[in-house]
Every structure is written in C-alpha cells, then in structure tokens.
Amino acid sequence: xxxxxxxxxxxxxxxxxxxxxTLEMLTRLLAPRTAENRxxxxxxxxxxxxxxxxxxxxxxxxxxxxxxxxxxxxxxxxQMEDAAKVRLVLRKLNISAHQKYINFILPKxxxxxxxxxxxxxxxxxxxxxxxxxxTRYQCLKxxxxxxxxxxxxxxxxxxxxxQFQLNALTEDQFxxxxxxxxxxxxxxxxxxxxxxxxxxxxxxxxxxxLIEECRRIxxxxxxxIWLQVRLLRRANHSSMRSLExxx
Length: 247
Fold this sequence. Notes:
Elements: H1 6-38, H2 42-47, H3 62-76, H4 82-91, H5 95-105, H6 115-125, H7 132-140, H8 150-164, H9 171-181, H10 189-201, H11 207-246
C-alpha cells in the first residue's frame, strides 16, 4: 500500500478542519434564518383573525373571541415576543374597544404590559355583564322568536346552555331558579326582584331561605299597609275635628 507523505497528510487534515469549521459557521448562520422563514408575518396572522366587537347581549365577549383564536396566539405566534403579540391582539380590537382599553390602562402604554396580563385585562373589561345566576335565569326564559329559523334558535340554545354551566349547578340552585322563574304574576313582581337580588349575593341560598324571604317581605308589606291605613284614619279624624270646630 502506498504511503501518504507527511506534507500531504497535514494538508488534508487542515482542509478537513477548515471544511468542518465552515460547515459549523453556515449552520449557525442559516438556523435563525430558517426559523425566521417559518414564522408567519404579522399581516398574514392578522388576516386570519376577525375584528373583535363587544356585544355581550349576543355572546360576543373577549373571552369567547380569544378562545376562538387562542391557537394562533399560542402556537403560530409562539416564537414571537410578548410585545409583538400584544400589538397583534390590540390591532384586532374595533375602534371603540381599543380606545376604551387605552384609556383604561393610562398612564401606562400597551407595550408596558405583558401579553398574558393584557389578555386578562381585556377579558375583565369585555366580559359578561350579567352574573352567573342572571345568565341561568335568562336561559330558562329563552323562547324562539317568530323571526328566527330553527337553526338560529338552536344556536341560541347552545350558546345560553354553554354559559349556563350546568355541571356547576347544585340541586338547591336549580330549585331556586325554578321557584323564582315561576313567579310570573304582576303581584309577585316586587318579591321576584327581592329574591333575584338575594340569589345574586348568596350562591348557596336554599329554597327554604327564599320562602322565609317571601314571608318577611309579605309581612313588611302588610305592616306598611296597616301603618298607612292608621295614618289615613288619623288624618281623617283630625280633619273631621277641624270641621266640627269650624261649624
């Protein structure tokens, strides 16, 4: 076997080391560019997200909107800095919601707040205005309108039942909902409002507690009527005595 001269062996070794160093340098240079090329542009991402318009009466809350596009912010924007994701989410607020948020965080600026905190604040600002009980109460009163087709009505049922949070409903809460929902008479309007207020403030209220509240309100109303009658009789008696003195 022919032997390789030391000079040639050294030259080959140097070339091999140089080639290896060049490959390592190219790897370092090209790696960030490859990741950058895989990162979608801000405009492309924005085009895949609809504008947020706050309309809680129709279920358009920020929580519902963000849930719809959460994968875009957490996966496709996963390599973005917080500041870029904040700009993207604020870019998709309509003019009214955007201005309201900007005013709310003053004197801070949007880039002073991280993405997670921004989302939390937007959920708080543009969430449901009704309490959970009120949402459940309205769900039980849901009815199909003449202008709605069955698909639209089914969508309304799905939305209201999703917000109802049936899995978290206790037996006592359900009984109280049925009890209050059945107070439809005009003569029960005051009691219904009082009971609604009580259920708003006490999530653990029982139907027995509602009955006691009804009795208390009824008793107070009767006392008020009795007092009013007494005052009217006294006023009438005073008037009669005045007339007698004049005659």
